[in-house]
Amino acid sequence: MPLPRFERLPADRREAILGVAREQFAAHGAESASYNKIIEAAGISKTAAYHYFDGREDLLGAVLDGVLGRLLAALGPWLPAADPAGFWARLEQGAAALADHLRRHPDDLALADAAIGRADDGPWTGWFDAVVADGQRLGVIRTDVDRGLLVAATAAVVRAADAWALARMRAAADCGPASGAVDGGPGADTADGRQLWPLLRGLWGTDGGGGR
Fold first, then answer.
1. How far is residue 58 from each of residues 14, 41, 64, 141, measured CA to CA in Å?
2. How confident is the model at residue 161, as a pLDDT?
3. Cα–Cα distance between 136 and 130 in angstroms, integer?
4. How far apart are CA 203 and CA 205, in angstroms?
5. Could you tell me which residues come within 8 angstroms of residue 142 by beta carbon, excluding any fewer than 6 positions away?
6. What are the tens digits of pLDDT across the range 83-105?
7. Predicted confidence (pLDDT) at residue 164 exceeds the cutoff of 90
8. For residues 49 and 87, what is the distance between their CA atoms, to the nearest angstrom?
9. Whole-structure pTM over 0.70, yes or no?
């Protein structure tokens, strides 16, 4: 977490520093970007940097927290569905919104896998817990498996599908629009997007009705 002195900076200055760091981490990799180059690009001294963050990993954590927050905002809160068909439609809409956000924000796309990978608890898991609870209420999701295990397994399956789709999205971005590569993520109306639904139906283990 950023140190208190960073939190006391004006909001636009905080965002500018984190924006530069996000660009550097996205361009050079979460594990490879140089801390010294980041603070130089942000226009702050090494002394000031260590008043704002405990070090490189602290800054990276702040950047990834921001990425994760934007991913969750793109998904939006899970709202109970009226019926199984509505459940699947809502799930696909959320995933499509997430894919659209990632297409429009290449820095978040580059760092999404790292951000999701560190989100074992908290709001990210909470989103899947809400999905599983709603699916069980509607008979879409099995109830013979421990709820916590099912939430964890669901998040793991979606994370694997996301990592696969994100890699394809990054490849498409690198190749450019003329490449004919995939133009959507796990929820988009593409062959790639539809890969996720059979995985979830198999995990959840019920016909459920209205499925993809």
1. 14, 17, 10, 38
2. 81
3. 10
4. 5
5. 136, 150, 204, 205, 206
6. 999 999 999 898 888 888 988 99
7. no
8. 46
9. yes
Q: Rounded to 5 degrees, what angle do the CA atoms 26, 34, 20 make? A: 50
- Residues comprising the chain, all counted: 212
Structure tokens at 212: 């993809």
Region 179-206 average pLDDT: 62
| 137 Cβ contact list (under 8 Å, min separation 6) | 80
**Backbone φ and ψ of 59, nearest 5°:** -65, -45
CA-nearest of 24, 49, 48 to 38 is: 24
DSSP letters, 141-162, are S-SSS-HHHHHHHHHHHHHHHH
56-75 helix and 106-117 helix, angle to the nearest 10 degrees: 100
Gap between the Cα atoms of 101 and 146, Å rounded: 33
- Helix 147-175, helix 84-104: angle, nearest 10: 40
Structure tokens at 154: 């669901």
> How sure is the predictor about 178, in pLDDT bands with cuts at 50, 70 and 90?
very low
Q: Which of 122, 97, 124 is nearest to 113 (CA)?
A: 124
Q: Hey, what amino acid is at 161?
A: A
Of 51, 67, 137, 77, which is closest to residue 102 (Cα–Cα)? Answer: 67
Report whether 199 contacts 157 (CB < 8 A): yes
Burial (0-12, 13-18, 19+ Cβ within 10 Å), 175: exposed
